[in-house]
Amino acid sequence: MCAPWGAAGPGVGFATRQVGNRTKPNLVVTAEDGVFCLKSQSTFKTTEIKFKLNEPFDETTADDRKTTTVVTFENGKLVQKQSWEGKETAIEREIEDGKLVAKCKMGDVVAVRTYVKE
């Protein structure tokens, strides 16, 4: 199964954020034999993670953080929790009105990215 989704999204740091704000990455989601793959592709940067639900794995994020990550499926949402240096981020992905909505939460801060199916 492959579902490409496209979005505009923020970057990290001022210069990266400026490029990121103009970039519309595609998110390709695949699943085979219980292994999921989330691949974000743009002209700026491509990242990919492969995982099994409920199994922790080491992840290097797009902004180069080294995290321990676990992805679960909760209440119709794909929830990705990243832990590093005593900090934690959660990314919740769900389908709303035919669009993939990704909410990244850290403390009281929430960033939202919406992907539209091509």
UniProtKB/TrEMBL annotation:
Residues 11-118 form the Lipocalin/cytosolic fatty-acid binding domain. Pfam families: Lipocalin (PF00061). InterPro entries: Calycin, Fatty_acid-bd, ILBP, Lipocln_cytosolic_FA-bd_dom. Keywords: Retinol-binding, Vitamin A. GO terms for molecular function: retinal binding; retinol binding. It comes from the Eukaryota. Belongs to the calycin superfamily. Fatty-acid binding protein (FABP) family. Cytosolic CRABPs may regulate the access of retinoic acid to the nuclear retinoic acid receptors. PANTHER family: FATTY ACID BINDING PROTEIN (PTHR11955). This is Cellular retinoic acid-binding protein 1. It comes from Merluccius polli.
